[in-house]
Amino acid sequence: MIWFAAINPVLSPMSPQARALSNVFEVTLAVCGVIFLIVTGLIAWCVLRYRMSDPGVEPRQSGGNSKLEATWTLASVMVLIFLFVLTVQAMRISDAPMDREPDLTVIGHQWWWEVRYANGTVTANEIHIPTQSDMLVRVDSADVIHSFWVPQLGRKIDAIPGHLNHLWIRADQAGQYLGACAVFCGAQHAWMRILVVAQSPQEFGEWNAQQAPPAKAPSTPGGLRGEHVFLQQTCVGCHSIRGVNANTQVGPDLTHFASRQTIGAGVLENNAADVRRWLTDPQRIKPGCYMPDFHLTGSNVEDLAAFFETLK
Amino acid sequence: MNSTSATISPVTVLAGAPAERGLLSWVATVDHKRIGILYLVTTFGFFLVGGVEALLIRLQLAVPNNTFLKPETFNQLFTMHGTTMIFLVVMPALIGFANYFVPLMIGARDMAFPRLNTMSYWLLIFGGLLLHFSVLTGAAPAAGWFSYAPLSETPFSSSTGLDYWIMALLILGVGSVAGAINMIVTILTLRAPGMTLRRVPLFVWMIFINSFLIIAAIPVLNAAIVMLLIDRQLEAHFFLGIQGGSPLLWQHFFWTFGHPEVYIMALPAFGMISEVIPVFSRKPIFGYSFVAASTVAIALLSFGVWAHHMFTVGLGHTADLFFAAASMAIAVPTGVKVFNWIATMWGGSIRFTTAMCFAIAFIIQFVVGGLSGITFAVAPVDWQMHNTYYLVAHFHYVLFGGTLFGMLAGLYYWFPKMSGRLLSEKLGKWQFWLAVLGFNLTFFVQHLLGFMGMPRQVYTYPDLPGWGAVNLLSTIGAFILGFSMLLLGANILWSLLRGQPATDNPWDAWTLEWATTSPPPAHNFQSVPPIRGRRPLWDLAHPSQTDAKNATATPPGESAPEKNKALMIVFIVSEGFFFLMLVIAYLYFGRTPGAGPTAASSLNVGRTALFTICLFASSFTVWRAERGFKRKDRAAMNGWLAVTVLLGAVFLTGQATEYWGMFERGVTVNTNLFASSFFTLTGFHGLHVCIGLIALLIVLGLTRRGEARDFQSPALATVGLYWHFVDGVWVVVFSVIYLRLLL
């Protein structure tokens, strides 16, 4: 079933919330499928049976039948009432009311996701959650409207400036779940992807314990030079590395950058070669993004990459 | 009649009467048929533009991580594709068909206001050109066809593309509303004797209802984009998510227009299908009154479903359930239509012409789009599938598989009437099957992309399992579909040059447009046949088997309203919707007054009340002027008119004084949301007072010059109505802004 989940996340729910959605979807699709078969069946019958054979003979000129009209009107109404009842039920399960403070806040930016946990952990684009536990997510926006959507874990909900939203996500099994921004939000809407990593509560605790503290000072010569470049160049104007510089939040927090799987909200994998590519020419990799091309020298790029590798 | 149409040469096919020859005559024409053809030719041109945009989009998406187009270019392309297809192709093409055929089908000589009709067409041209002019500035709009705020606001879209978009839509909107008013008045006042509203062909009926949708929905869009323009150009922040501005209000406004717009694009196609299927099934439409009534139901319900576009914005379960229920309810009258079309074919004698083939494909594909629409009405499903490719598939099944296939059915059906020549059935069948194959290959697989988790409006996508293969299939389908449309162009050209001449009534159809020559003469009919039922030509051919037994030619009790008054009333309704939205905006922003000036701190109720009395008094004086007109008392009429103008001027002076005082205290349109919404609402009212004053002065000038000598001119009565409306709006505005302060 893994291949099915890979090509059909919408109908491969991993949480009770998402399961309620996929159940009501499956029933609705079945109902619609039956209606489609009835309609095309009737049309096929007409096409095969009532083909003109003799142009001289006009068929019987019947102009309507009120009983028939009433029948199909009522039948449609009954089907829709049935679907409406399912709608009410599915909404209740998949979108329960908020009953406590959120566990984490996700803030949409052009074009990345800021993720803040109640205990102070800040990360980007990659959300870690413990399995088997309902997580209440507050969804906010720093600029335009975005939409948070991880199909296997729950509903989607929009991130709207000035209008806070909440949703429940949950993963019954450990694994990685893909999602994306689902409202057009400008030039790089395509690369505003989400990765949810569900871990056992113990692993999640370890991850969080590692993410919460500030970055350790680099010990290698390259790392030290890289830290210097980071502070000398304009990097610090946008990016925060807790323990290294003040709290600027324009771009993603890089405190534990090396522990993440992707760069640029999914546009590249986070490996040594791609970090260098990204630093060399972000505008070629993610045109229009707010990270300018700084024309860093080759050695600057090497040093920065060495520094970032230390940010576990 | 048959012999004349059979001998015309290709050159005269489109040229019409001998007096109207040459290219210039097309520019100057006010003939509804030629304007109809202009509409169709223009929209075919824009259709090619929008189609090329679509193919570029599909090329970029053919493979994962593609770099064929820059992201910004891609975003401009889908914005322009959506805007073009909706405002420059589907809407005007349907209006073009209506222009050509509504007067013919009701046995009229032309539209009620031929010159207004011409204006509507030229506004389409200028609006379309203005929109595309943005391309020349190097920055086409790139915020999607729904231009969601705050992305569409200056901080996030600083180039001029969106301003062009707004101005173009305003121009197109004015043209559409003028066209719709013209249609309503034409259908109300120019029906031939015996053509009662219960007998008009369903295409005419759908256009009639559709025109009401247009006059109500377009002003809502106009109000929204005017506010967006004020944000962008005058630095207000109606829709910015700061200091009380509300991005959600944009969505509410936009979809209050946007969902009726979907039906504006669908109803006329329903009308065409309701003409084509009966003729090629050799049976009258099944359940005429049910099809007609369900259209009214759809039109009314369409204004209560807008927030089903907003299930993911977090409006709460109560609102979501209300709009889910309303959206499901609108499926019922739509389903009724589908069953009636099938029942029309049932027991018929079906001729599979290209037109009929497109009609049958329309039903099946529209049902697919309708059913996926029902899945979206189930709000929890929308929470998953909203803004995915499943949605893209859904609305293309409705608008392309539905409306556009319906229009192609209409084109193959009516082309002989417009050109005097038949289209090639052989090429037509090729086009049909390629279009069906291409369309379904392009869009059916996009449902799957939705299940795979692919959002819409992305310029590229990661190489996830299956995504590349399915996207490639869709791209291949798009090119097959594009090729099929080239075949249509070839068919039309071939037909105009070599096509077999058409008789007056090549399909043996029953409605009045087939009772004249192909193409019809400039004056449309030598004589309109007697109309005793819904199928005049059937009744003529089968006197012993007529539809309506004992029906008289002219049923008593139907008198048409005076056309100028009818025009003004419909126009006022349309303007009413515009002001309604501005009033709603004022009240909405008044709920949470932010920092800065408020109504209480800025406005002087007593002083404005004095000016208000002047304006209200002018309603009385204009009524006295009308009474003078009716009594042919020129002195009284001129005197009261002059007093009216004076009172209006006093009111405007009062408003100017109030504005001046506020400016002096630094309160301007961008100060805060109170100021923005106050100046927008009262400013647009003031603008209407100015226009009313100019109209009154023109009437006064005409009467003084003695042009209304015979006391027959409807000018005063018409302008008087408008003036009462301007006063009526002020009653509401004065209560909402000023009187509320006294509570």
Shape of chain A: elongated
- What is Rg of chain A? 27 Å
Determine the strand fraction of chain A and express it as a percent band: 15-25%
Report the CATH architecture of the largest domain in chain A: Sandwich
Q: How large is the radius of gyration of chain B?
A: 27 Å
State mean pLDDT of chain B (0 to 100 scale): 93
Average residue-wise pLDDT of chain A: 93
Please name the fourth-level CATH homologous superfamily of the largest domain in chain B. Answer: Cytochrome c oxidase-like, subunit I domain
> Residue share in helices of chain A?
25-40%
Compute the number of strand runs of chain A.
Answer: 12
Q: Can you describe what's shown?
A:
The complex is a heterodimer of chains A (312) and B (743). Chain A has 312 residues and is of the alpha+beta class. Chain A contains nine helices and twelve strands. Chain A is elongated, with a radius of gyration of 27 Å. The mean pLDDT of chain A is 93. In chain B, helix 8 runs parallel beside helix 10 (288-301), helix 14 (389-419) packs antiparallel against helix 15 (425-452) and helix 15 packs antiparallel against helix 16 (467-498). The longest helix of chain B is centred in the first third of the chain and has 35 residues, at 71-105. Chain B is globular, with a radius of gyration of 27 Å. Chain B starts with a helix and ends with a helix. At the A-B interface, helix 1, helix 2, helix 3 and strand 9 of A face helix 5, helix 9, helix 10, helix 11 and helix 12 of B.
